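Example (one chain per record):
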Amino acid sequence: MQKNYTPKYDKMYTTGTQREMKKYLNQILQGDCIEMMRQIPDASIDAVFADPPYNLQLGAKTLYRPEDQTAARAVRDSWDSFESSAEYDEFTKQWLAECKRILKPNGAMWTIGSYHNIFRVGAILQDMGFWILNDIVWVKTNPMPNFRGTRFTNAHETLIWATPTKTGKYTFNYETMKKLNGGKQMRSDWGLNICLGEERVKDSDGKSLHNTQKPLDLLHRVILASTKPGDIILDPFMGSGTTAAAAIELGRQFIGFERDETYVAAARERIANVKPIDLTDIEVTKPKRDEIRVAFKELIEAGLLYVGQTLVSPRGERVMITQDGNLTHQLYGKASIHVMAAKIQRSVSFNGWDYWSAQKRDGSLVAIDELRKYIRKIKSGIKQAA
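Predicted structure:
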């Protein structure tokens, strides 16, 4: 087994399960994924990304592009062929059972599919006790057209994000996703290109090697959303190596299984020169919920705000700080910084820290969240000194 990439995290695996895991880490190994996953210790994997066969069953008929009558490449490979839906379901149950066993209780389970298979996979996930967190619609911004003109152009695929148990304290890097989305909450519809051009892994004839190669941007988003640096991501259907490449770039570890020796060779060659990328401007490693808590009233007690001081919203609404650390408004009465912000915007809820600025005696404004950061810095220094 040749190791293509050795990250700094390898030194962590020294005893017991860790020593057992070391022989699989950061390698793409050839073999049947079900048999190979059976060799992985229980509860040892942080995340699984599975891009299983879609069971398209397209038959032998070739489709031709109407503009130039060139053949459109479709998935007719042997690995996507099943005798019946029952056989496909049994295959799905077997590989998902192994995923559930090897995932940590707080791990992430991702699988992707089309209308041909994703509903069957989703039902089996639920039957096995996985807890579905989201279904994500990957909206293909440059989909292949429907050449026959007999149906809508199939312009999306569906990802299911789940955790092994309902009570699992799974990782969700909300702030990173928000940052990637221009400061707004990321939605469950992701507009991303399909894999084309130089990103496509080619065979010796210069043609696309793998029919269902996924774009790196898709795997980047999955990994950044649900894992931490150094986490182990297992891909039971590694194909052309996209999951491994994305894991290396983002400072995660990987294990990949793949039956086809041609794909294995190409994937190993692909990742040989992949390097980690600078995540300074991408990843928020410490979510806001993990930061030191500061109550609004503490800003008053610290002398950063005072009773009777005016707070101003981005739209110019003005409220006044009361003795008990609330806000008062001539129309909306008295409420906390959060409830008052929600009332003024006619919203169910809102984070008041992101809404209000304090008007200083000279008329200038300072965001109350900046004052909160100052208190956090002081508290952090006290905590470290203790």
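Caption: The CA atoms of residues 201 and 207 lie 8 Å apart.
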